[in-house]
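Sequence only, no structure available. Ideas?
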Amino acid sequence: MNYALVFRPEVREELDEAYTWYESQQPGLGDEFLDCVDEILNRICQMPESYAVVYRDIRRAVIQRFPYAVYYRVVSSRVIVIAIFHGRRDPKSWQTRT
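Reply:
I predicted one. Tokens follow.
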């Protein structure tokens, strides 16, 4: 069963910031970052329960090649993406989004 993907508003801002930063480091790197994000989101939608619960009912899927993780909840047939977050940032800022 594929789940519908829903993004919290903050997630788009986080993706834009990360994309811009990676593109400023090396042209094309931002696109590679977005490809890796897209790949992990597809995996999450196919098997959302396969990733570990890290806080209350929120699960985390680590993005390959980049120090980011996707934090999400599964609610009925939807995957609600809470944050796409750099691994060194304070997790308390995404934990308040639940």
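The mean pLDDT is 90.
Hope that gets you unstuck.
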